């Protein structure tokens, strides 16, 4: 059963972005990945403070702590160093993984792993270790084996995900999916999110 929908911001700002994001929060969005060019603190000033606890920064754990956000999404190698700051463990830290092999070295204290790109998309091409046509047998076996491990972290898939692929993903041992183009590529992003969520809840 799919549990959580994550949404990434677009790198660039655009008109009505804050209104759209707040509308999606009201429609049930519970996790936003703030991934912006420039100063994230300045961007946050235009969003209601009540949503801070639902935002993960695409950046360093220290920056997320300074901004008083719920967590961060950082490249997996950040968390596989020999020593990490104990303060990071107060956050919900998510490892950004471009290959399935990166899952093998993640520490158990992480809040999750964002794995992809699963499907080709406008914002990303499949990474090393990801089949361009998404070999579900290989992907399913790897994720089943990983999730069965005692110290595995929750898995979130990203890359080319929209409502039309949810049925294919529904049997995989994942905690959720992350969207970008599946919402922001539409003229009405809020309506696109509502339609996606309706299909998502079906699974």
What can you tell me about this protein's structure?
The longest helix is centred in the last third of the chain and has 14 residues, at 189-202. Strands 1-2-3-4-5-6-7-8 form an eight-stranded parallel barrel. The protein has 203 residues and is an alpha/beta fold. The protein is globular. The relative contact order is 0.16. The chain has one domain (4-202): Alpha-Beta Barrel (TIM Barrel). It is 27% helix and 18% strand.
Q: Give the helix level as a range of percent.
A: 25-40%
Structural class: alpha/beta
Termini separation: 6 Å
Give the overall average pLDDT.
89
Sheet having the most strands: 8 strands, parallel, barrel
CATH superfamily: Aldolase class I
Domain count: 1
What would you report as the Rg, rounded to the nearest angstrom?
Answer: 16 Å
Order of helices and strands: EHEHEHEEEHEHEHH
Low-confidence stretches: none
| Sheet with the most strands: spatial strand order | 1-2-3-4-5-6-7-8
Q: And the CATH topology? A: TIM Barrel
Summary, kept brief:
The longest helix has 14 residues, at 189-202. This protein has seven helices and eight strands. It has helices at residues 17-26, 40-44, 61-66, 136-147, 166-169, 181-184, 189-202; strands at 4-8, 31-34, 55-58, 71-75, 92-97, 112-115, 155-158, 176-179.
Q: Main traits of this protein?
A:
alpha/beta; 8 strands; TIM Barrel; about 25% helix
Task: Map the helices and strands.
Layout: E1 4-8, H1 17-26, E2 31-34, H2 40-44, E3 55-58, H3 61-66, E4 71-75, E5 92-97, E6 112-115, H4 136-147, E7 155-158, H5 166-169, E8 176-179, H6 181-184, H7 189-202
Helix pairs in contact: 1-7
């Amino acid at each position: 059963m799919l549990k959580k929908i994550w949404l990434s911001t677009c790198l660039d700002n655009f008109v009505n972005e804050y209104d759209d994001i707040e509308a999606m929060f009201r429609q049930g969005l519970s996790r936003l990945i703030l991934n912006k060019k420039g100063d994230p603190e300045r961007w946050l000033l235009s969003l209601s403070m009540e949503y801070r606890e639902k935002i993960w920064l695409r950046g360093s754990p220290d920056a997320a702590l300074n901004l008083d956000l719920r967590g961060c999404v950082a490249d997996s190698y950040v968390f596989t160093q020999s020593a990490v700051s104990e303060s990071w463990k107060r956050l919900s830290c998510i490892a950004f993984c471009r290959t399935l092999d990166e899952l093998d070295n993640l520490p158990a204290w992480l809040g999750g792993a964002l794995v992809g790109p699963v499907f080709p998309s406008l914002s990303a091409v499949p990474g090393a270790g990801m089949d361009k046509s998404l070999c579900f047998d290989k992907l399913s076996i790897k994720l089943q084996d990983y999730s069965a491990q005692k110290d595995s972290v929750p898995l979130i898939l990203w890359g080319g995900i929209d409502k039309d692929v949810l049925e294919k993903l529904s049997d995989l041992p994942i905690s959720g999916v992350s969207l970008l183009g599946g919402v922001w590529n539409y003229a009405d992003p809020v309506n696109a999110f509502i339609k996606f969520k309706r299909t998502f809840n079906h699974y």
